[in-house]
Design a protein that fits this description.
The complex is a heterodimer of chains A (295) and B (457). Chain A contains 13 helices and two strands; from the N terminus they run αββαααααααααααα. Chain A is mainly α and 295 residues long. The radius of gyration of chain A is 24 Å and the shape is globular. By secondary structure, chain B is an alpha/beta fold. In chain B, the strands form four sheets. A five-stranded mixed beta sheet of chain B has the order 2-1-3-13-6. In chain B, strand 9 (240-241) and strand 10 (246-247) form a beta hairpin. Classes of the chains: A mainly alpha (295), B alpha/beta (457). The interface between A and B is medium-sized, with 29 and 36 residues.
């Protein structure tokens, strides 16, 4: 074996743990689930090939499916923009040179590292009608008690509101982006007579678009996979108003033992997320600006 | 390994079958295809001297763990050489059991519950105990309350032996009834009596926005089949016409029953609204006068009530058919059909329905006796902590307890999970919340379930 050949073999050997892991633990199960999506598979019996029937049932006769799609779309359509704006505003505030800024940054980022279950239980209590802190404040201010998660009209909106609790994760990325904007751009703007608002609109926002783009893609993917909120707080109720797509997928897989249907749902979700991501990527040519890019 | 063992493996693991087939040759393979021979009476006793290791999957803590300690002691008296190991399970049991069964690694005997009986039997996970009980002189299966035993039966075969007489019974807050000037529940109450008296409780105190401070009925079990289906039966309704393969939730009697049930929320306003979270179980907190559940809640209720309120139990109110219609829900023990020690697994499980074990469990407040012979002897109640004082309420309701409908095809689910459960709960919630009328809501339930029935016809 010559040295070139030896280098090649060694190279493959070095990357083989990752490649094998990818094939065995990611690509393999993915392909298996794709096959499962065309089967009836109640877990304890061998899968039975049924062609497209899972997809047909999903799209034509399962009214829960469309409700789950609707809930997830509304949630993604509201929580993602709110989260983007909230995190951006927070990052700008925390990018100021004020005393104790490290404390504020840490405080706002802290919720992002609190385990999801713990923070959800905490929110459940905060929003409790009879004993919750939020209602206690509302009553003090003269408002009636509010049943956040108990009414179909307000449950999803309450979840959107609750999602802002996690903006710290996006904020830290914005903060890094803000600090990467060259000071020379602002100095040049000021020399040209631009005021603070003009600097913000013409320098800060354009320079931040790659970060906004990143947070938008990640936010969309995360929102489309929302599960824990409903699983812990509402079980999808009341009246299916918080019946998220992934909650339905979980129920089909482990409560109804319809692994085939659950696999079909998983692949449809992947398709939708893929389409959305491609659309966002395509649109990025219109609104995302990279420093070194010439348009 | 018995012929029964071989037969069970064919249903669980193809690889296992191939190994066995290769090992024993064509003759044994043919034998495995032969009808399964019923075990001989007391077959387990014949194996008593063989060293056997049984793994038992149970939940930690009372009542499952201490009851299994009683079973183990009784089992080891007869089989001193057998080793019993407890494997503590927790979390989502269905998911764990399904995975273990699919991998062929489920314990010989495992904690089960009524909700697992149908799916496990449908998928050949659980051993049919009927032939074992039929030939066993140690067991008098006719002594078991038949309704309760029925909760562990699927397709005429015993898949699970229940642990106790777990009939849904009415827990009531005596102090609250007294304070409201309402009559205390008695065994002649109809649901109308219940409503009239609970209205006095909701009128006791209201918040600034008019919301009652106290409720007649807790919402904790509002959609449980054991709460809802007795109404259907009590009104002469039905939810499934098996002969004609028809879903019948919109049957006039069924709709009348469900309307009457929902009226406790949307008309009489005596039940705790759905979704109204008062920071825990409203009965435990003294905010609801009545809570319907099985006997195993005695300890937790006593602990919660402490010196805050007095309480007792009573049979469920009378339905229009003149019966104390109620449901049931229990845990029990099943044997894994793919296990290696089926005879001994049965020997272990059957201890659950031995009079000595039942009596000891009852005296330790781990259950209400499942056997008529034990239940009819008041000695099981001696020395038990009070309240409740009216312990016979747990037994008097047994003959009016009904079994769930379990004849839907597996794909359509059941009262416990899947499409049937999801559809009726959605409709009932919509009716209770005033979001839909009962006729339309349950017609939609029928349409959903019927499409599944047709696909599986």
């Amino acid at each position: 074996m010559n040295s070139r050949m030896r280098d090649t073999v060694q190279g493959y050997l070095f990357i083989s743990p990752v490649v094998l892991g990818l094939i065995i633990f990611t690509i393999g199960p993915m392909l298996t689930s794709f096959y499962m999506s065309f089967t009836k598979f109640p877990l304890l019996r061998a899968p039975e090939w049924i062609g497209l029937r899972n997809y047909v049932i999903m799209f034509t006769s399962d009214k829960n499916f469309w409700q789950a799609c609707k809930v997830t779309l509304i949630y993604a359509g509201t929580s993602v923009p709110l989260g983007l704006v909230g995190a951006f505003v927070l990052a700008i505030l925390l990018n100021q040179r004020v005393k104790g800024i490290a404390f504020f940054r840490t405080s706002f980022y802290m919720p992002a590292i609190v385990p999801a279950i713990a923070s959800l239980i905490l929110w459940g209590w905060l929003m409790n009608r009879d004993y919750g802190l939020i209602n206690a404040v509302l009553v003090r201010l003269g408002f009636p008690k509010f049943s956040f998660f108990a009414e179909p009209e307000t449950a999803l909106a309450s979840m959107v509101m609750m999602s802002l609790w996690g903006v710290g994760a996006g904020m830290i990325i914005y903060l890094a982006g803000l600090q990467g904007i060259p000071e020379s751009l602002y100095e040049a703007g000021k020399l040209d007579g631009a005021n603070e608002l003009q600097l913000f609109i013409n320098i800060t926002i354009p320079m931040m678009t790659p970060t906004i783009f990143f947070n938008l893609v990640m936010g969309l993917i995360a929102a489309s996979q929302t599960f824990m909120n409903a699983f812990v707080l509402t079980s999808g109720g009341p009246l299916k108003s918080t019946y998220f797509y992934n909650l339905m997928l979980y129920e089909r897989a482990f409560n109804w033992t319809q692994m085939g249907m659950a696999s079909a749902m998983a692949w449809f979700l992947l398709f939708v997320v893929l389409v959305l991501t491609v659309l966002v990527f395509r649109s990025s040519a219109l609104w995302v600006f990279y420093e070194a890019e010439v348009k | 390994m018995s012929i029964r063992d071989l037969s069970s493996q064919t249903t669980i693991s193809r690889r296992g079958l191939l190994k066995v087939t290769a090992a024993v040759g064509g003759t044994a393979a043919l034998a495995a295809c032969a009808p399964v021979a019923a075990p001989e009476a007391g077959g387990g006793a014949a194996m008593a001297d063989e060293p056997v290791e049984l793994e038992i999957s149970i939940l930690a803590g009372a009542p499952v763990e201490p009851v299994n300690e009683l079973i183990k002691a009784s089992f080891n008296e007869k089989h001193p050489d057998a080793t019993v190991t407890f494997n503590m399970v927790s979390g989502d049991l269905a998911e764990k059991y399904y995975t273990a069964a699919a991998a062929g690694t489920l314990s010989d005997v495992f904690f089960s519950a009524d909700l697992f009986v149908v799916p496990f039997a449908n998928n050949n996970v659980t051993l049919d105990l009927t032939p074992y009980t039929e030939g066993d002189p140690d067991v008098d299966i006719d002594d078991v309350f038949p309704n309760m035993l029925g909760l562990g039966v699927f397709d005429g075969k015993i898949q699970m032996l229940p642990s106790a007489l777990d009939v849904v019974t009415m827990y009531y807050n005596k102090s609250l009834f007294e304070e409201a000037g309402a009559e205390e529940p008695n065994d002649e109450w109809t649901w109308d009596d219940f409503i009239v008296n609970c209205q006095k409780i909701t009128a006791l105190e209201t918040e600034a926005d008019g919301t009652p401070r106290y409720w007649g009925l807790s919402n904790a079990t509002w959609s449980w089949w054991a709460t809802v289906y007795p109404w259907v039966v009590g009104y002469g309704g039905k939810i499934l016409d098996i002969e004609n393969n028809l879903s019948t939730w919109s049957d006039p009697n069924t709709v009348a029953a469900l309307k009457a049930y929902a009226s406790m929320w949307n008309e009489h306003n005596i039940a705790q609204p759905l979704g109204l979270d008062v920071g825990g179980n409203s009965f435990f907190l003294g905010r609801a006068a009545v809570y319907t559940h099985i006997q195993s809640l005695r300890g937790p209720v006593r602990e919660a009530a402490a010196d805050k309120f007095e309480w007792d139990v009573q049979v469920m109110p009378l339905m229009p058919d003149g019966r104390h219609r109620t449901g049931m829900g229990t845990w029990g023990m099943s044997a894994y059909a793919g296990g290696q020690n089926l005879d001994m697994a049965y020997e272990y499980i059957k201890q659950l329905i031995r009079p000595t074990v039942q009596l000891e469990a009852a005296k330790a407040e781990l259950g209400v006796p499942l056997l008529r012979s034990v239940a009819s002897d008041p000695s099981w109640m001696e020395g038990l902590p009070t309240p409740p004082n009216n312990l016979m309420a747990f037994i008097n309701g047994a003959d009016d307890a009904i079994l769930p409908v379990i004849e839907h095809p597996g794909d359509c689910g059941s009262f416990y999970a899947g499409m049937v459960s999801d559809s009726y709960r959605q409709a009932l919630e919509a009716v209770i919340r005033g979001d839909a009328n009962a006729e339309d809501a349950f017609a939609e339930t029928d349409a959903t379930i019927q499409s599944c029935l047709d696909q599986n016809a």
